[in-house]
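Re: the multi-chain job from yesterday

Posting the exact lines I submitted so nobody has to dig through the queue logs.
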Amino acid sequence: MSRRSITGFSNPTVKAVRALREKKHRKREGRFLAEGLRLLTDARESGRIPELLLMAEGREGHPLLAALEAAVSAAGGEVIELPEDLLAKITGKDNPQAVAGVFAEWDAGLEALDREAGKLWLVAQAMRDPGNLGTMLRTADAVGAGGVILLDDCADPFSVEAVRASMGAVFTVPLAQARWEDFLPWLRAGPGQLIAASLREAVPYRGAPYAAPCFVMVGNESRGLPEDYEMACDLRVTMPMKGRADSLNAAVAAAVLAYEVLASVGG
Amino acid sequence: MSRRSITGFSNPTVKAVRALREKKHRKREGRFLAEGLRLLTDARESGRIPELLLMAEGREGHPLLAALEAAVSAAGGEVIELPEDLLAKITGKDNPQAVAGVFAEWDAGLEALDREAGKLWLVAQAMRDPGNLGTMLRTADAVGAGGVILLDDCADPFSVEAVRASMGAVFTVPLAQARWEDFLPWLRAGPGQLIAASLREAVPYRGAPYAAPCFVMVGNESRGLPEDYEMACDLRVTMPMKGRADSLNAAVAAAVLAYEVLASVGG
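And the result, structure tokens for all chains:
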């Protein structure tokens, strides 16, 4: 198995990979970066093989790492060894997890979604925090959601922070990105109940008449959902807010609602 | 009302305040930094007045800002005006929210908690992510929790990130920090059901026999709870995990459980 070694920070490959931490470079290259053996193993087992595998010198051997390397080579990808401190500079983490991979981004259009694939879907509108977005992907995996739909100007699900927070779910959970004006006609072209947490004409979220496939929508961290988005919902639900604040963290709200819907419509 | 103006980055006050972004300086000074009119207003309405109020020059006037300034002056605190870019350097935010405050930290011992104050409590063990910690505080406010108890080596609840993620709940939700070996005797000295999400001899989290006051405990982001902590619980519950992963984000798990407990024992 052929491996290339890199020793210097000025190496063009190192520079190109490191640049993938910035959105503009990710979008131009159509590629993104993920790190850690567990994440990359989740990816491999989901059929996502990195085009480029970066391994720290002096790492401990591991059967999953060997399997990863074999899969990359079999798929015609490249394997590179480099000093640990160089890998740390690429991933921006003090303690890099010995391995990182560069993946080609995949298409994420509504047309690729199969709405029969899940009784429950998560929809994020203009969610700006990549950590929240990754956490929603992780929750979507946990509740067995059909997928996650990102509406309007969301954070990049392929950012290092989102990939990390997703704990691998970015590789396993179907993902679509769309504008509201395209999403709504798509939704209405088939079965699907759109719900949101709201204070407008809402019913208590416990025991609300959820129906599969149920699309749970949460909005921007600061502004929430636009009023017309809320009013387009089939069901608006309200969660108890017993303190001073009038809202939950967006990823938390999505999860509390999703688990309630799961208990109602089944997984 | 007297105000002092600061124009340079080398000013000792600016340096001292900026240093509060680091934990070692916060602990040495016993002070922390919070930013934004909404956060500082939550603090004021909860009786927490900053010792030092920093206001950007050229900000828009606002009745809440005037109320804040008056409260600081009345309490013998100091008000400082400074250029917006200087405030940005202090808070580390590109768009500072025109106002920031320096607060004295307060005592956070178990003995200050009143377990009759809430039917529901959140307990975080060795939680390392300040965003998760702040989010748990925000959730605790929302479910009307008696407070949040931080066990063992948690992230600092007074870090800028935790304060920000708490959306003001750090000022309003009672908080205690303790070691497990002190917490358990305190808990057992009175009524209190300790519960955790677990895979060990657990019952489904829906409809589990929750009893107030119920202490919902979640563990470290990577390692979860130590086994002996789980086994010390009165009730271990399990949440559906329908995907590849075997855990939720810690703040999400706490919230899903907390809302279930709330529905069971009432707020």
